[in-house]
Design brief:
Layout (H helix, E strand, L loop, with lengths): L1 E6 L5 E7 L2 E7 L5 H19 L3 E5 L8 H20 L4 E4 L1 H9 L6 H12 L6 H20 L7 H12 L1 H4 L2
Parallel strand pairs: 1-4, 4-5
Antiparallel strand pairs: 1-2, 2-3
Helix pairs in contact: 1-2, 3-5, 3-6, 4-5
Length: 176
């Protein structure tokens, strides 16, 4: 199954693509501002769609932590643009809140980015020089294993299964 995971950001959008053993990660760093920046990121994501033809798109849900109002609105605009593109390109779209994928990966839903990088290294033996790539990787791993769990695979820790159950219960909020 071809999965494209997107950790959207106005300054550094991380992505992770997997198709079996083929994996690719990267970061989109737009050099513009305003609507031009949204279009730039959208164009780059569309290029990834064309290059890899993902069957499933997964995006990080909104985090409303310490952002200022302007950044919150801009992030909402970016999320809306990317969500619309996924739907218009007829791809299933899963939205995974950061607390959900973090709890699945680390056992805790509120870790800082540096702590997540360390957990990913310890758990998967992978080092990321950029936390945006790491977050996208974690989104992809989460949705890949969630879909495996739905198929009846049961080789997950108890806390991971609880995360899956909670996500499934609220799936209509996170799936288009």
């Amino acid at each position: 199954m071809k999965i494209l995971a997107i950790d959207q950001s106005l300054t550094a959008t991380g992505y992770y693509f997997c198709n079996g053993n083929e994996e690719k990660t990267g970061v989109i760093r737009p050099k513009t501002k305003g609507v031009t920046r949204l279009l730039s990121i959208r164009t780059d994501i569309r290029d990834l769609y064309k290059r890899w033809s993902p069957e499933i798109i997964v995006m990080e849900g909104y985090s409303f932590g310490s952002r200022n109002t302007r950044a919150t609105f801009s992030m909402g605009e970016l999320g809306g643009v990317l969500k619309c593109d996924a739907v218009l390109n007829d791809r299933p779209l899963y939205i995974v809140p950061p607390t959900v994928w973090k709890k699945y990966i680390t056992g805790k839903g509120n870790l800082k980015k540096e702590q997540v990088l360390l957990h990913v290294y310890k758990k998967y033996g992978i080092t990321f020089e950029d936390n945006n790539k790491c977050d996208a990787y974690c989104l992809g791993i989460f949705i890949m294993n969630y879909l495996r769990w739905l198929e009846g695979k049961n080789d997950f820790a108890k806390y991971q299964i609880e995360v899956f159950k909670k996500y499934k219960k609220h799936l209509s909020d996170f799936h288009v």
